[in-house]
Specification:
single chain; about 40% helix; binds flavin-adenine dinucleotide
């Protein structure tokens, strides 16, 4: 029995941990070693200082145990789909609650996991606490995190429901039909709605003892810079017109309440009418607005339809998830009849089998679906009425129900600000038959699962209006971005920004695109990858893309036999690494990334000239003949350091960072060779030679077989540096000789087809950050010499610089389209 804990709080708690210990502590005050140093409230999904049952439970226990209270709130890099968008929203929320709790005299400490700030802080605090209080959120990762904390310490843990009006503890099963849930919870709901949330004064002391980290003061912190230090997905930009936090949440609610709540029932199904719905779901998901207040005030306005959505459909999903086995992202979570029916139609012919990338970027055959996806990608939201049609399309466009569910969850959680909420699972599982009945007639692919036609939906919606709503700017105003260099980093940056609707122009001095990821064509028949040979993929942010490119046939795994050679002897096998190549040549990846982008080749950008026009673009780009290439607000330079410096040095202190970075050269020879016996490998790293790498190009997937065989030879960095100024003829003679010596097989005939010098081939040193960005001048630089000296590093660097720009344009800026003029009291 929890002494004197008010009933409205008591009914919201689930206790975890050692019951005996808890009883001893809470009833008898505990022994010294049971008592701990403080009561700790771990905040994550009730990010508010008002109407917060978990905070009230924590205050109550701290008061009762005569212990100080510590509120710990953290954002880590490991939650699923972690991105700049979710981070920005949560950080803005943290900033609000930090101020709110400071005003109440409650000690709140915030930690952001980032570069050089990583450690198991929650576990340590939980071990030192007498009681750990936290909120219930019946979805992953929270369920698993709470379980892990529980197993790591013996501290009693109070898990408090702060999200539902009908407490999760008061239902004994997960209802699967809305009417059943409505009937079962009607009286509980009515009783809870009838009372205002009881005000709890702060009756305990704040904890000011030692902490395992230095807490962040978010009031003056630069959120853009902080997020840049986190190892998360930077390609999903923050949303300017949905800033996080209680203040923004209540402004939205007040405007909706006064303008639209009354007519909600009429307007709610029109996706082209942005203000016809509350757009509160993300604020409710993170508990930045109190569901108690929203429900109470909606009830005062007798907004029955809105209340039905908020209290029946939303809470049905919470209670369902709470009573379900985890994980929820499994086909096992849909009803037996739906699973069976989908299974029977497993081998039905699908309309399409889209890759993750085609879906994520909204490149399908349906303009309505693409607009829905752009809404998610650019603005982090999708109107509820369209979300079901959007979700169901995945069944027709993927090769199995499992993959359809996986794609729905991925795209929803990754892009929607309210992703990962129980309501998200409710809606997405509904697309697969959950909370629904079998539907007649049985049709291909869907079986008895209710279909929803995109074509029919498109007829019902004002497409022109919806598309212009979706294609509104993500920034304060129209923004022009120039990218100098169409290497992998530049193209990734350009594509990410263009996908967010920005006006991007790419310039490259070469004839082709892709930079060092290049393919040389000889006599129109033979192709050589004379730059990057293959790439590896280790970071999840890159592997996801690589798998999608494999699906689309742009990339293939390369299973060639790769060895290490020393003087003609194979001294080690090197085939176990997973290697990938673009097909049919390495340059295909650059070409793929450039589809739909505005790229001008054979244009060397010689100078960036600042303008003094206060209202126009900041920068003009000039080419070698001083022709003006246009005006731009932001410029990203994606060129090797030596080529970036002359552009940036006159304007930005960024140049200081670039100066120490050096690149090694590489001589590359493309040959055709006939040997007297077959060479027993496809590629080799070569020791103790002028050569560092040799590779039979036509054994890579997607390449036409050549006879005689085509080999690419790369000289070592040292030899290439020592022979930087040698003639191509001398280099050819020497490297052919080195090849003959290292393969260990006699040569019958050898013909050199081309020789190429890469003056800036591979970074000899790299910067310790993914990109460099100067917010004062709006200039940035990216490339493999920033994050890591490979294709993967270039990809991540391009993503990082795009993230810097997106954060600069959106975080704590005011959207011209957003209604934010409410000036009344918020809480
Ligand atoms: P880049 O590809 O260098 O692109 C920069 C672009 O900027 C170029 O297209 C250039 O033309 C353009 N540019 C420069 N200055 C200007 C200007 N003033 N105006 C306009 N355009 C300009 N990586 C691997 O992962 N695996 C490998 O096996 C591998 N092998 C390699 C072998 C060689 C010989 C070389 C050269 C590289 C290899 N790499 C490999 C490295 C890989 O190619 C690079 O890491 C990656 O391609 C770099 O991409 P990036 O976008 O940073 O720059």
């Amino acid at each position: 029995m929890d002494i004197s804990l008010p009933a409205f709080l008591q009914e919201r708690i689930i206790w975890l941990g050692d019951k005996l210990l808890r009883d001893r502590l809470l009833v008898a005050g505990g022994t010294a070693d049971q008592r701990g140093e403080f009561v700790c409230y771990w905040m994550h999904h009730a990010v508010r200082g008002h109407e917060n049952p978990a905070l009230d439970v924590a205050i109550h226990h701290a008061t009762m145990l005569k212990m100080p209270l510590l509120v710990y709130h953290a954002i880590c890099e490991e939650y699923p789909y972690a991105s700049d968008r979710h981070h920005a929203f949560m950080l803005q929320g943290a900033r609000d609650v930090q101020r709110e709790l400071a005003d109440l005299g409650v000690r709140y400490v915030f930690h952001l996991q980032r570069e050089s700030h990583r450690g198991p802080h929650l576990r340590e605090l939980a071990k030192r606490a007498a009681v750990l209080v936290t909120e219930s959120m019946p979805v992953e990762p929270i369920v698993g995190w709470i379980e892990r904390i529980q197993s790591a310490c013996s501290t009693p843990i109070a898990v408090v429901d702060c999200a539902c009006i009908v407490p999760l503890t008061l239902t004994n099963k997960g209802y699967t039909r809305a009417y059943e849930f409505r009937d079962a919870t009607k009286s509980i709901l009515e009783q809870r709605l009838a009372h205002p949330y009881p005000h709890q004064p702060v009756t305990c002391e704040p904890y000011y003892g030692p902490l395992p980290f230095y807490p962040l003061n978010l009031q003056d912190a630069d959120l853009r810079e902080l997020i840049g230090k986190c190892k998360i997905d930077h390609t999903v930009g923050p949303v300017i017109d949905s800033p996080g936090g209680s203040r923004a949440g209540y402004v939205r609610w007040e405007i909706f309440k006064s303008d639209a709540l009354r007519r909600y029932a009429k307007r709610r199904n029109n996706a082209a009418d942005q203000n016809g719905v509350s757009r509160l779901s993300a604020y409710l998901h993170f508990g930045m607005t109190s569901p108690f207040r929203i429900a109470r005030e909606a009830a005062e306005h007798q907004a029955d339809k809105f209340l039905d959505e908020l209290l029946v459909w939303r809470e049905l999903a919470f209670h369902f998830c709470f009573h379900q086995q985890q994980p929820l992202d499994s086909i096992e979570r849909i009803p037996e009849w739906a699973r069976r029916s989908l299974e029977l139609h497993r081998s039905d012919l699908r309309e399409q089998n889209y890759s993750w990338e085609s879906l994520a970027r909204g490149k399908t055959c349906s303009s309505l679906w693409n607009a829905c996806q752009r809404s998610l990608l650019k603005h982090g939201e999708l109107h509820n009425n369209l979300r079901m049609t959007w979700g169901k399309a995945m069944l027709s466009w993927t090769d199995s129900a499992e993959r359809a569910l996986h794609m729905m969850i991925d795209l929803n959680h990754r892009y929607a600000l309210d992703g990962r909420d129980p309501s998200s699972y409710g809606g997405l599982l509904w697309c697969m038959g959950q909370f629904d009945r079998p539907f007649e007639p049985e049709i291909p692919v869907f079986g008895h699962v209710r279909p929803r036609s995109l074509i029919e939906h498109e007829k019902r919606i004002d497409m022109g209006k919806y598309v212009s709503l979706v294609d509104r700017s993500i920034a304060v105003e129209r923004t022009r971005v120039a990218v100098v260099g169409a290497g992998i980093a530049g193209l990734v940056a350009a594509r990410t920004l263009s996908d967010h609707g920005l006006d991007v122009h790419v310039f490259d001095k070469s004839r082709g695109i892709g930079g060092r990821m290049a393919t040389r064509r000889i006599d129109d028949v033979i192709r050589f990858d004379h730059g990057a040979q293959y790439f590896t993929a280790r970071d999840e942010r890159f592997t996801r893309q690589v798998h999608s490119w494999i699906h689309d046939g742009i990339v293939a795994p390369w299973h060639g036999r790769v060895v290490q050679l020393n003087k003609g002897e194979v001294v080690a096998e090197k085939s176990s690494t997973s290697r990938y190549v673009a097909t049919p040549g390495m340059s295909s990846l650059g070409r793929h990334l450039a589809i739909g982008l505005n790229v001008t080749c054979e244009t060397l950008v010689k100078e960036l000239r600042p303008t003094d026009d206060k209202y126009g673009e900041r920068w003009h780009l000039l080419d070698e003949s001083e022709s003006d290439l246009g005006g731009f607000d932001y410029v990203i330079v994606n060129a090797p350091p030596a080529q970036s410096l002359p552009l940036l040095r006159p304007h930005s202190p960024l140049a200081m960072n670039i100066e120490p970075v050096t690149m090694s050269p590489c001589w590359s020879l493309m040959i055709q060779v006939e040997t007297i016996a077959a060479i027993p490998f496809d590629a080799a790293f070569v020791d103790d030679s002028s050569l560092a790498w040799i590779c039979r190009n036509d054994t890579k997937p997607g390449r036409a077989k050549c006879d005689p065989a085509c080999w690419v030879l790369h000289a070592s960095a040292k030899w290439s540096t020592d022979h930087l100024e040698s003639s191509a003829e001398d280099v050819t003679v020497h490297l052919q000789q080195a090849f003959a010596e290292c393969i260990g097989v006699g040569i019958a005939k050898l013909r050199c087809l081309a020789v190429h010098q890469w003056r800036y081939a591979i970074p000899a040193t790299t910067l310790d950050r993914d990109c460099i960005w100067d917010p004062a001048t709006k200039l940035g630089a990216c490339g493999d010499w920033c994050g890591g000296p490979r294709v993967e590093g270039a990809y991540l660097s391009g993503a990082a610089i795009a993230g810097s720009l997106l954060r600069d344009m959106t975080i704590d800026r005011r959207a011209s389209s957003a209604k934010t003029e409410y000036t009344g009291q918020l809480f």
